[in-house]
Amino acid sequence: MKNAYDIVIIGGGPAGLAAAIAAYDAGVKDILILEREDRLGGILNQCIHNGFGLTRFKESLSGPEYAARFIDEVEKRAIEVLTQTTVLSLTKDKTVTAINTEYGVFTVQAKAVVLAMGCRERSRGALNVAGSRPAGVYSAGTAQKYVNIKGYLPGKSVVILGSGDIGLIMARRMTLEGAKVHAVCEIMPYSSGLKRNIAQCLDDFDIPLYLNHTITKIEGDKRVTGVVVSKVDENRKPIKGTEMHFDCDTVLFSVGLIPENELTKSAGIDLSPRTRGAVVYQNRETLVDGVFACGNVLQVHDLVDFVSEESELAGVSAAKYVLGEREEKDVIDVVNGKNVSYVIPQKLDKKASGNVKLFFRATGTFRNCVITAKCGDTVLLQRKKQIVVPGEMETLLLAQAKIAAAQGNIEITLEEQA
Amino acid sequence: MFDVIVIGGGVIGGAVLRELTKYKISVCMLEKENDVCMGQSKANSGIVHAGFDAAEGSLKAKFNVAGNKMMPAYAEELGVKYVNNGSLVVAFSQEDLKTLQVLKARGETNGVTDMEIISKEELRALEPHISENALGALHAKTGGIVCPYGLTIAAIGNAMDNGAKLYTDFEVVDMQKQDGVFTLTAKDGRTEQAKLVINCAGLGSGKIAALAGDSDIVVKGRRGEYILLDRESGDFVSHTLFFTPTQKGKGILVTQTADNNILLGPTSEEVETGNTDTTADGLAFVIQKVNAMVNNPPLYNTITSFTGVRAYSTRHDFILEESKHVAGLLHCAGIESPGLTSAPAIAKYVVEELVSKHIDLQKNENFQGKRKAEYFFKQLSVEEQNALIRKDPSYGRIVCRCEQITEGEIVRAIRENPPAKNIDAVKRRTRAGMGRCQGGFCQPFVAELIAKQQGIPFEQVTKNGKGSEIVVGVSK
Ligand SMILES: Cc1cc2nc3c(=O)[nH]c(=O)nc-3n(C[C@H](O)[C@H](O)[C@H](O)COP(=O)(O)OP(=O)(O)OC[C@H]3O[C@@H](n4cnc5c(N)ncnc54)[C@H](O)[C@@H]3O)c2cc1C
What we know:
The complex is a heterodimer.
Chain A: E1 4-10, H1 14-25, E2 31-34, E3 50-52, E4 61-62, H2 63-76, E5 80-82, E6 86-90, E7 95-100, E8 104-115, E9 119-121, E10 137-139, H3 140-150, E11 152-153, E12 157-161, H4 165-176, E13 180-186, H5 195-202, E14 209-211, E15 213-219, E16 226-231, E17 244-247, E18 250-253, E19 257-259, H6 262-266, E20 291-293, H7 304-322, E21 331-336, E22 340-344, E23 347-349, E24 356-362, E25 366-375, E26 378-388, E27 394-398, H8 400-405, E28 410-416
Chain B: E1 2-7, H1 11-20, E2 27-30, E3 47-48, H2 59-78, E4 82-83, E5 87-91, H3 94-110, E6 115-119, H4 120-126, E7 136-140, E8 144-146, H5 148-161, E9 165-167, E10 172-178, E11 181-186, E12 191-199, H6 205-211, E13 219-229, E14 240-243, E15 253-256, E16 262-265, E17 269-271, H7 280-293, E18 302-313, E19 319-322, E20 329-333, H8 339-354, H9 382-391, E21 398-400, E22 405-406, H10 407-415, H11 423-430, H12 443-454, E23 473-474
Parallel strand pairs in B: 1-2, 1-12, 2-9, 5-14, 12-20
Antiparallel strand pairs in B: 3-8, 4-8, 5-7, 6-7, 10-11, 11-12, 13-16, 13-17, 13-18, 14-15, 15-16, 19-20, 21-22
Helix pairs in contact in B: 1-5, 1-8, 2-8, 10-12
The complex binds flavin-adenine dinucleotide.
């Protein structure tokens, strides 16, 4: 290990791996990947179900298989990796402080940094769910780790809150492990999971999905003994008199993912309150020169295929930055218009080359709608879509010429047609 | 047989036990739960009160003010976080403003120094997020914050390092005195004997008195629910903000904690048992009050909620006395707030004034009051951290990413006094699992470390004692 690198990549999950490979292939070979776990691959290591890579490789891989393809490429290029190494802090001038058993607390200086730390699950505590605090309350990802990595069954009789993909996949996983999953409750009127997961993980196993329902009480002294589930009104407040009781020994929470941006914050990099990830330009550079962000630390993606794509972009951009291909930027904002909860990137450099793929999410379910990108009154692009749901990321490809010609900020809107 | 038995492993029992080890006597602690610090000392506001609140001439006033003065050195010796952040009692009406004068005068009578009534503008300068409706405040500069479980566990650990014995899962259900010797019996039949017994059983202190045939002590419970916010919002307020007290008590507070979280609460509700469930209504009440105190509290950064149960005596003051019915039974009962603040002063008083009447106290020259500085890895300098990692590489492995707690610290918590036996016990000692992901990432690792250190199968690792195993079997 040296004490200075051209590019330091924080996180060795799918995002960090793809960024490293792309940066290397773009001509910067002096790269260090820092990973806190004992192996590369990130959260994919515990996702032993299939369905990864359909877009990218046109085949259905398990999480570890998908990761292995990238790990192989990193190894082929002999990119330096430090596992079991946790980054403690980052500064604006790109000094990275990390810790491991071999070097202790040490710093490395980078010319460019790629943030690829991924995300964490929201916990029960964040929701203020009333009741006791017994054993048997887990976030879905923790339960997945117990089952798939550690080889233990966290419970036998389960209620799940949240119908995001991890919640759905764990409903199936726990069922296959012989547990009884009584219900999946979802506070929203729709599931934020992929449609295929609802079919394959719930419907195929006759697990009921209770939309507009939430857990209002957890019971049990040492171990969970049951939960109270209530229907909620349109403001997501529990309705008195609708309580149902389930006996169970386990409650799994799958109530959202939060990008892990503590390091980003420690470096004073601006975050978006909408995504809780960094504010970025189309090349995935943050508002601090030479620091790039990609993957779930930037925005929570539905599919790892998109993470890889975004991270290659960040990796190439970091390489270009190191190779000195920088210019003064000419910046406009991308604005969240009607029915749009966020758009990535939030900023566009009008001078940058290449068309830009905008990623965005809707605030609800909309049918028969039109997606519009406009600048003032000028419509830059319009696309029709049968159905748009918050659980599936939408994209819009904006031609470089249109961006270059924009006379102000660009707004993305979503409208249902009469 | 011991010279002295302390019943109850809370902050009071802990401080008393440690104080006793300063003398050449044999002492032990009996605790009914599977770990120490499982009662009100675990779940409270963590405020080192200045002392303007308690009635003039009360024991609460006396020990509060004395404890407040002792706390910085006491915490420092034990390696526990203490911050002198200052308290602000905020007025929202003309009535409240008058009460502030009363509080200040009472404080002065109680011996509190450095109090000042400040204007609306001065208040805003100290706390920019304060509500527009605030009219002024009493600023008590000696107010502070301390980590309550840290303080309790460190005192007990230090006492054990100095020779005290600890018996957990020892619920005292019978007490007999014969020929000047007390025999205390646990639920499971174990017995311990001593010449003196000190009742520091918190919510159970009335029951302990009753076991000995002393019906003078009546202790009741009052619940308080809290919400805790992530350290990310830790600078939202820097002082401890109180509403001006009314007939109904001190009310909800908004404070930084010694670990730089933000704590909101507690509610106040009479209860029969020590049940620590949280309720939707209780938490909603906390939120409503907090919104009246400050603008836009960062509730989106909530990481957990919890409940503590205050054990108060029907005398509404501390009971620090020898039983009038049973000689040699000393009561530290009804120690509600400001009990945490008062703990070091109470311990000194109980040992020097009450125990000394029965036992000739000779100084223990070998007493070592200082806990090792390396207790909190994060607080060491980089050079010190690296020296430690070279000696023991496990300090170079972060297990809890949110609080940046190393494997070395967790292993030490499992091995050192008082040994952590389960996941919650590790959490109280190290903060692993206390951060924003609430153990989502580190719990499996902590569980493995416990299994390995204790030589037990993984399936036997518990969250919080028997019956709270974290897994129910192996996967297919
Ligand atoms: C909501 C709340 C907020 C508070 N805020 C503050 C504050 O901000 N500042 C402050 O100074 N004080 C505060 N206090 C008060 C402070 O927490 C208490 O005064 C202090 O913790 C009391 O300590 P203790 O050791 O007496 O009781 P505990 O911590 O309750 O300890 C008693 C122990 O005795 C054990 N026990 C009981 N019965 C038996 C038995 N039969 N056999 C063996 N063991 C037994 C229990 O398991 C327990 O571990 C607050 C209290 C509460 C509840």
